[in-house]
Design a protein that fits this description.
It is built from 3 helices and 6 strands. It is α+β, with helices and mostly antiparallel strands.
C-alpha cells in the first residue's frame, strides 16, 4: 500500500493562491518547494541577498522539521539567483549549512517572479 502524501505549509498566503505546498512528504522523500527570502512573520523581503539566503534556509529547515526531516537528510539542492555575481556572495552562507552534508547541487542564473527576489532555493531530502 502506498504511503499517504503529507502536505506541509509555512503559512505563506502564496501557497493557497498558487496551489502548492511548502513541502510534500511521500514515503522516505521530502520535496521542499522553491523558497524565496521572505520573512513570513513580517511578510517583508530583506534587501540583501545574504539576508534573503538566510531566510530561505530558515524556512526550509522549518519545513523539513515539520515534515519529520532535517537538513542532514538533504540530498539535492537547486539554487536560483538573479545575477551570476551573487554566487560568490551566497556560497559561504550555503557552506555554513551544507559543507558537511554535501548534497548534489545546481545553481542557475535566471529571473525570479518579483524584482525584489534575489535568490530561491529548492531542496529534496531522503530518509532511508
Amino acid at each position: 500500500m502506498p504511503s499517504p502524501r503529507k502536505l506541509i505549509s509555512s503559512g505563506s498566503p502564496f501557497e493557497r493562491t498558487a496551489g502548492y505546498s511548502r513541502a510534500l512528504v511521500q514515503g522516505d522523500w521530502c520535496f521542499v518547494s522553491g523558497t524565496t527570502g521572505y520573512d513570513y512573520a513580517t511578510m517583508t523581503m530583506p534587501e540583501t541577498v545574504e539576508e534573503q539566503t538566510r531566510n530561505c534556509l530558515r524556512t526550509i529547515e522549518s519545513a523539513l522539521a515539520d515534515a519529520g526531516f532535517s537538513l542532514q537528510d538533504v540530498v539535492r539542492n537547486h539554487y536560483y539567483v538573479t545575477d551570476a555575481a551573487l554566487a560568490d556572495v551566497v556560497f559561504p552562507i550555503l557552506g555554513e549549512t551544507f559543507a558537511e552534508i554535501r548534497p548534489a547541487a545546481t545553481m542557475v542564473v535566471c529571473d525570479l517572479i518579483r524584482p525584489e527576489m534575489l535568490i530561491e532555493i529548492e531542496v529534496t531530502a531522503f530518509r532511508g
